[in-house]
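Go through this fold for my students:
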Amino acid sequence: MPVKIRLQRHGRKGKAFYWIVAADSRSKRDGKLLEKIGTYNPNTNPATIDLDVDKAVTWLQNGAQPTDTARALLSYKGALLKNHLTVGVRKGALTEEEAEKKFAAWLDEKGGKISGKEAGLAKAAADEKTKILTAEKAVNEARVAANTVVEEEPATDNEIVATSNEEE
């Protein structure tokens, strides 16, 4: 039975949410699945990916072929790297400890990149908020200045009327 690792769509229209599944390649997109490996939510920024890397590696070692999108997600979470290191251990190219060290180092590097992107997005949002706030303050100050000018003009007119009454 040919097995694929692919995405199974869930969620409502316009708010897609996917399960990452191992399924028979002949089954429908949202049909019967063999095992749920993880989830993928593209609606958040950055996209949320929850993946059981060990299950994914097991399916890859058993011959499951990921689709293009699933391959990108597996690569992003490190499942393809772990599979590659496992094959190297099986062939004797490196030891289990070396493979674990390499995978842990890769995860640390990847975690740094992700946290850097999240920090950049938070900073951009804060900058946008301060920009909007300063523009709003400028509009409010202009409005206050316009109101004080309008209030001063009738007072000068009243003074003119009062001085003309005093003259009579």
Remarks:
- The longest helix spans residues 96-167.
- The longest strand covers residues 3-12.
- The mean pLDDT is 87.
- The chain has two domains: 3-94, 112-168.
